[in-house]
């Protein structure tokens, strides 16, 4: 199963964004969203190092709540 990870853009340099999720930072390609208006503070879904969708902060929080539930369930014997 493949999951996109909601991340917040911290900075943008050309078509590369420095993004953060849960304290982890990664460089993410913005090539697939090159026609979107993106700025530091925006949220995207990252998949395999590429931003695939711009999302709202609320949608990012909902996704992380679900991921946290899945991780908690996986830790339960």
Automatic annotation (TrEMBL):
Transmembrane segments: none
InterPro entries attached to this UniProt entry: Hydgase_assmbl_chp_CS, Hydrogenase_HupF/HypC
GO biological process: protein maturation
GO molecular function, one term: iron ion binding
Pfam entry (one): HupF_HypC
Protein origin, superkingdom: Bacteria
Alphabetical list of PANTHER family matching this protein: HYDROGENASE MATURATION FACTOR HYBG
Family according to the record: Belongs to the HupF/HypC family.
Protein's name in the database: Hydrogenase assembly chaperone HypC/HupF
Organism of origin: Thioflavicoccus mobilis 8321
